[in-house]
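Pipeline run #58 for the internal structure catalog. This entry was flagged by the ingest filter as a single-chain record with no existing model, so it goes straight to prediction. Upstream metadata was stripped on purpose; only the residue string is passed forward. Reviewer on rotation: M.T. Logging verbosity set to normal.
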Amino acid sequence: MTEINSVTTLTQDGDVAIVTLNSPPVNALSANVRDGLYEGFKQAIASDAKAIVLICEGRTFIAGADITEFGGAMKGASLPDVQGMMENSPKPVVAAIHGTALGGGLEVALCAHYRVAVPSARLGLPEVNLGLLPGAGGTQRLPRIAGVEKALEMMTSGRHAPAKEALEMGLVDELVEEGKLKDGAVAFARKLVAEGRPLVKVRDNNAKLEAAKGKPEIFADFRKANARKFRGFLAPEYNIQCVEAAVNSASFDEGLAVERKLFMELMMGSQSAAQRYYFFAERQAQKIPDVPDDTATRPIRKVGVLGAGTMGGGIAMNFANVGIPVTIVELKQDALDRGLSTIRKNYERSRGAKPEQTEQRMSLLTGSLDRADLADCDLIIEAVFERMDIKKEVFASLDKIAKPGAILATNTSYLNVDEIASATSRPEDVIGLHFFSPANVMKLLEVIRGEKTAKDVIATSMKLAKQIGKIAVLAGVCPGFIGNRMLSQRQREAQKLVMEGAMPWDIDRVLYDFGFPMGPFAMSDLAGLDIGWVKENSKGETIRDVLCEMDRRGQKTGAGYYDYDENRNAKPSPVTEKIINDFIVKSGRNPRKVSDEEILERCVYPMINEGLKILEEGKAIRPSDIDVVWVNGYGWPVYRGGPMFYGDQVGADKVLAKMKEFQGAMGDDFKPAATLEKLVADGKKIADFGR
C-alpha cells in the first residue's frame, strides 16, 4: 500500500489499481482530497496496473464540494485537474459508488469511464439548493448521459436519483451487491480489460444532445411547467441555460465556458450567499449552548394529543407517520369522529398514498373522550382553544393524570408558557411545542423553553422534532415568541399603510415581488376574515368588521379584501377601495400615494428591529435562528436568507437611519432597538450579535 497523503491511499489487487479516499465525515472535495486524488491517479496511471478503481471509505462516496472553501482562494490541485487526470487516463477508470455521489462527487464520477454502485446508493446534482449550478462540468455531462429532460429535472430540483433509476438512465453501468462494492468494482474493471471495452468519455457522447437539437420547445415547456416553483430564484434558470448551452454549443468546451460564467455569477451573487448561509443556519439551530449534544433524552414511545381539530389532528399525523402511537382526546364524540375522518382524508389525498399505508397509520391513532386515557403517554400535547383559563385548566388536570416523567407540552402560539406551567406541580416537565398550520405539512416547530423547563425535556423535544421531520428552533417565553412577535410588527404597519392610502393589493404585490408566497391581505382572505370575529359584538369600527358584516369573509364567500371568481382568482375590489377611502375620510386624513419602497421598508425594517429586541432579551439564541423561523414558518424567501441576514445585506446602518426617520415622522412604533444602535455605533453587523 502507498500512502499518497493523509486521506488517500493507492493499493493494487492483481492488475487493478485501487485509489481509496478516506476523509470523514463525507469525503468532501477539500484541497487535501483533491491533492490526494490527483496524485493517486497519477501514480496509478504510471503503475503496471491495467485498470483503476476509485472507491471511498466511510458511509459515503464523495458527497460534494467543501462548502467552507467557497469564496476563498483556491489551494492545491483544482477539481478540473483531478477530472482531467481521470478522464484522460489511458487505462479504464471505474468509480465505485456507495452512500451518495452528490454535486462535485457526481461530477468526479462522471469523469470515470464507467460507474458501478450498490443498490442503496443515490446520485444527484443538488447545487440548486445552495443557489448554484454544478460548476465542474455537471451541466454539460449529465444531459449527455441521462438525456436533456432528465438532466433538467434533476438539476433544477436537486433530487437524488436512487441507484436503480441511475442504472436505467445510464448514469451507472452496473449494480453490485451491498457489502461487496470493492470486489464487484474490481471484477467489473477486469471484465472491461478482458473484453477490450473502449474508454468512454462522457464529454464526447453527443447522441442524447442531438435528439434535443432544434427543439427549443423542450426548454420553453419546462420553464412554463415550473414557473411557479422557480419564481424569484436565479439558480434554476441558470441551470436551464447551461443545459441549453450543452445542446446548442459547437463543442463541449464552449458549453463548459457558459457553465463557468454562469456559475461565477451565482457564486458572487446575493442569492447563493443567502442560501449557503441558510444551509449552515438550519444546522446551527440544533445547537443549544447550555444543553450539550450528549444530554440524556426521555424515551417517547406513546404520545397524547388533546383536541382533534385541524391543529390537533395535524400534530397527531406527525407521530403516526413515524410509527409512534397516538391517543387523541376530544370533549364530544362528533368532534372526535370529525377529527379522525379529516386525518383519514388527509392521508388518502397524500401524493402517492397507498391504502395499506393509510390503514397502518390510522391503526396507530386511538380516539377517546376521557383524559384519563393519556395516563400512559410519554408526551402529551394540548391543542385546545387559545385562552389562558382553558390552558391552565387542561394542565392542572394533566398534572393529576400524567405519569411521572411525562412531558407536558402546549401548542400555544402566543401565551405565556410559564403561567401555563404554574398550573402544575412539575413545571420542569412543561414545554411549548408551537406547530405551524397545517401541522402535518409545515416544517417549523418553535420549541419554547420555560423558566423551569428541564434540559432533558429540551433535548428530547429537539431530537423528537428531527424524528418527525420538523426543523426546530428554541425560543424563550415572550408574547408571540419569535415568529408571531415579529409578524405583529408587519401586520401593524400593513394596517396603518392602508389607512394612509396604500391599497391592500399594493401592499400584497410588494411583498409578493419580494418573494413571499402571498401578502397579508391575501393571506387573511385565504384564512377567513371572520376568524376571531363575533357578529354580535361587531360595530363596524374596523375595515375588517365592515367586510365581515357585508358577508365578505374571504375566499370562502367569494369576496373579502379582494373579489374572487369561481376559480378563486383574486382581483382588486372597488367595494373594498370605497370602504377604505370612507374610513380615511372619517379619520380626517387625506389619502396619499405610498411608494413601493416605503411599503417594503415599513413592513420589513420593524421586523428586523423586533428581531434584535428578541435577541437582546435572550429570547432567541442567535440571529440565524430567527431566520430559520421565518424561512420555514412564514414563507420568507430562502434566497433572501431571512430577516436578520437581509438586514445585513441592506446594512444595519441604513436600517437604523430609516427607523429613526420613520420614528421622527410617525412615532415610537419605530423606536430603534438598543442593540441596533450599539451594533451600528461599533461598526458591526447583525450577524456579529453575541460573538
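catalog note: The mean pLDDT is 95.
catalog note: The first strand starts at residue 2 and ends at 5.
status: ready for reviewer M.T.
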